[in-house]
Amino acid sequence: MKRKSRHTSSEPDAHAATIDACTFCKIARSELDSVRVFEDENTLAFLDHRPLFPGHCLLITRQHLRTIADLPPALADAVFTNVRTLAIAVQNAMSAEGTFIAINNVVSQSVPHFHAHIVPRRKGDGLRGFMWPRHKYATASEAEVIGAKIRDEIPRLIHAE
Fold first, then answer.
1. How do residues 26-43 score in pLDDT, each as one tens digit?
2. What are the strands, taking DSSP E only, across 49-136?
3. pLDDT at position 158, please?
4. Three-state DSSP state, 40
């Protein structure tokens, strides 16, 4: 069913269309089935339908936010408190030795809606640390230059909020 828009520009219409089509928004609205494990006014957690291991959960924001950059600071505390709670619950419920928590941000983000993966882990489970090649910095100087770039960016972001 096509909804009539009250907006005059195409940008809000595109946002509304994105929300209507978003798989995770549909799960939050109970339009798609999921095995829910936790929910509150800000977030919803459910089992991943293609888990790395049994107990692999996704925690999403109820509000359609695409990336961590879109996550309002006022909501960040609630989201990460729930990630922490879910990590402990998954580890305990699955008798796991630990958990792997991951957030893809645009690249490798299969659903363009902010979400955190909480995956139970055990030694020898076959998941090898990070699943991409890691490389050392060529020199200590190169690492310092990159560290300075990141340090210089942080005050700009803090003052923008």
1. 999 999 999 999 999 999
2. 57-61, 98-102, 115-121
3. 72
4. coil
> Token pair of 64, please?
């359609």
In sequence order, the β-bridge partners of residue 135 are none
For tokens 């950059």, name the residue.
69
Q: Are 112 and 66 in contact (CB under 8 A)?
A: yes
| Burial class of residue 41, CB neighbours in 10 A (0-12, 13-18, 19+) | exposed
CATH code of domain 10-134: 3.30.428.10
Residues involved in catalysis: 115
Q: What are phi and psi of 36, to 5 degrees?
A: -80, 140
pTM of the model: 0.78
Six-digit token pair at 37? 């494990």
